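sry for the spam today, last one i promise. struct tokens for design, 209 residues
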């Protein structure tokens, strides 16, 4: 192949590499890039199906990355600008927090020993106080209303994938029914905080129709 032929081939290859595809108007193509969480359409987790008449019903939902919370999508797909009269209703259900008295929580409760029981093998030690630096205890300040991570409300920090737009939403009283509207179509990364607990998930908001 001569010099002119090789030069022409190079132009063809370069042009092929620069070819672009017109953006699709379908919701899935618009927002799926970068989303780690997927919408499940099967039954809800056992701990999240309370209140539903049919626990085996298939309901669109997204489980948090840590498995601590689930978003039940009553409006699917979520849409940034709805014209169908519906709303972006999401029911947030958090996994019950484990308690020492719950044998399934992984905790084992042991009766407190008493000084009067010589067979217990325990030696009574004065209760440590926060002011005693040798007690091994660390005092933690009581939460205050001004501390957004300490309250029971569900605090949502949403960041738009690939853009960096960040905003916050709040569900008063903690996980429960809500309407979460976001201003743009795309994949939104959600950081969730409530009652000292955290989780994260991605939600896709489609283009309006």
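last one done:
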């Amino acid at each position: 192949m001569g010099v002119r032929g090789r030069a022409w081939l190079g132009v063809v290859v370069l042009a092929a590499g620069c070819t672009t595809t017109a953006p699709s108007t379908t919701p899935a193509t618009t927002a799926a890039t970068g989303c780690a969480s997927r919408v499940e359409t099967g039954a809800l987790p056992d701990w999240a199906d309370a209140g539903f008449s049919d626990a085996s019903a298939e309901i669109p939902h997204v489980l948090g990355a840590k498995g601590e919370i689930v978003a039940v999508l009553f409006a699917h797909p979520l849409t940034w600008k709805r014209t169908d009269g519906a709303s972006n209703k999401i029911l947030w259900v958090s996994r019950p927090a484990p308690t020492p008295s719950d044998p399934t929580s992984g905790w084992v409760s042991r009766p407190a020993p008493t000084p009067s029981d010589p067979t217990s093998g325990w030696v009574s030690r004065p209760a440590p106080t926060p002011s005693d630096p040798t007690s091994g205890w660390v005092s933690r300040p009581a939460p205050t209303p001004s501390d957004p991570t300490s309250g029971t409300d569900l605090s949502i920090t949403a960041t738009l994938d690939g853009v960096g737009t960040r905003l916050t939403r709040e569900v008063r009283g903690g996980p429960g029914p809500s309407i979460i509207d976001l201003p743009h179509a795309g994949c939104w990364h959600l950081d969730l905080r409530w009652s000292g607990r955290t989780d994260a998930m991605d939600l896709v908001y489609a283009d309006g129709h």
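Strands lie at 61-63, 69-73, 78-79, 89-94, 154-160, 166-171, 177-179, 186-194, 197-206. ok im logging off now
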